[in-house]
Amino acid sequence: MNTEQLQLVLQSAVQALPTLLAATPVTLGYALAAMLLGLPLGFLVALSRLSRFAGLRGASSLFVSFIRGTPLLVQIFVIYYGLPSLGITLNPVAGGIIALTLNAAAYLSETIRAAILSIPRGQREAATSLGLNPSQTMRLVVLPQAARVALPSLSNTLIGLVKDTSLVSVITVVELLRSAQLVIARTFEPFGPYLAAALIYWAISSLLEVVQRVLERRFARGG
């Protein structure tokens, strides 16, 4: 690449920035929505996998296995393009959020389940001896400690979701990647807009990593 070509790439990247930055809140919105919805769903799935009832364990294990064993892109296609054949039609926003939420819930459930299992059984027994019922033991003893254990993985899941939102561009959601594609369709210069989009994803991920480290240090001091 000569100097002139480099200048053209940088110019196209700079020109694409306003459009891409305008779409960045959409990317963040999808990631945060999937995380906020996926956390409680993942928690329920984790509890189901730890349940004494075989039916709950089996159903939740099947859900996790299916989601983790299939590509997110295929899941988006099934939800957005497949469900209409069953009479269920979703708009791109709902389809994208549902797909990301289900995917996040499956991975979060494994993180939460592992964190819960990492708490020594003796602490549960001690809580029971103090008169706490199972619900109180989970809420007051197990979950606060499990949250510290799970924090790095939860943060990594959110970072992964930010990048995974790029896949909803295939169902016409105008997020960061789709915005770059629209700019390219006008300018016929792909390198600059794609490079700018990549740098924005990198900046978001780096910022979230900093927040993760701050939270980890705070939790460590609290421990």
Automatic annotation (TrEMBL):
What topology does the record note for this protein and the membrane? Multi-pass membrane protein
One GO cellular component, as annotated: ATP-binding cassette (ABC) transporter complex
* Xref: InterPro entries: AA_ABC_transptr_permease_3TM, ArtM/GltK/GlnP/TcyL/YhdX-like, MetI-like, MetI-like_sf
**Where would I find the ABC transmembrane type-1 domain in this sequence?**
24-212
Q: Which Pfam families match?
A: BPD_transp_1
Q: Keywords for this entry?
A: Amino-acid transport, Cell membrane, Membrane, Transmembrane, Transmembrane helix, Transport
Q: Report the transmembrane regions from the record.
A: 32-50, 62-83, 89-108
> Would the keyword Transmembrane be found if you checked this record's keyword annotation?
yes
Output one GO MF annotation: transmembrane transporter activity
Gene3D superfamilies, per the entry: MetI-like
One GO term (biological process): amino acid transport
Q: Where in the cell is it found?
A: Cell membrane
Tell me if Cell membrane is a UniProt keyword of this record. Answer: yes
Instruction: Quote the NCBIfam families the UniProt record gives.
Output: HEQRo_perm_3TM
Family under the similarity heading: Belongs to the binding-protein-dependent transport system permease family.
Protein known as: ABC transporter permease
The source organism is Deinococcus koreensis
